[in-house]
Amino acid sequence: MYEIEITGFAVALVALFCAIGVVKEDALKAALPFIGGGAVILVSVLLHGSATYLYFGIYCVMLSIIMSVNYGRRFNWFFVTFAMLLLLLCFAVLNGIVLFFIQMLGVGSTMGFLYIALSNKRKAAKTNIRVELSRDTIQIILGIILLLLLLFFGKENASVIILLLIMAAYFIIAFVYNYKNIVLLKFLRSLEKPRAVYGQGALLLASGTLLILGFVGKQSFMEFGLVVLFFSDSLATICGVSFGKARLPYNRSKSVAGVIAFFVSAAVAGYLIMGLLAIPFALVLSFMETADLGLDDNILLAFVLLFLYSLTLL
After folding, report:
1. Does residue 145 share a domain with residue 103?
2. What's the pLDDT score for residue 5?
3. What is the pTM (predicted TM-score) of this model?
């Protein structure tokens, strides 16, 4: 037991120094803990077996945070940590702890991408209706794909497939951000709002999806969560930009039409998925979506969904 605790302390310590080294842009301080942390994980796996999962989780969260906070800043570190997370994913698959990996990746990437979003001083300019409709249409299509995966493959298998899709999305979005002059990628960049950090909304949506996949145990509620994130939020925006002349008195950036679209879509789809309980949940979610709390809607809704899910467990 004493050796196990020392191993856990070592993993946490090298991960912490790794984060400090990256933030301070000191390559030597960062590179050695990266290597050392991986070595400690490997040795602890050989010595202690399942007792190392806690330390695996610590390292996974730290790598996720480092990857996400370097998005748009130091792409070398982003891609290095991304590659290391792929190695940890392989370990998770071989040891049957993919759900644990999803949870840790969701927590770490959410923390990191939220930091990027909250520290961004540039306010995104309003985009034209055509671009906004294109963005939300793509989001709805993605939601349909994810729901079909859940329906056909079940929660466990679909979660693995969706995880791989999200990892691929992380890489593609970062690649597009870093290589701005490739002609084939200009379409993707055209979907972003002017002056916004490219891919910020998509990355936060992916992180929110990971939280739902990782911490929601019931498939019906998971399906409801995906409907809220990919359909209701998108329909609220589409109706808001198309018919949103009447604005909410407590948040002028939100419209009455958007709130109604959000509530109706979430309540109807939720009722078909999980019964009457979805209606009050849809009411709470539609109100929180309009709250001006300084958080991205994708993350705020994911947090509220997890809170509501916890109530169903009481």
Report:
1. no
2. 43
3. 0.82
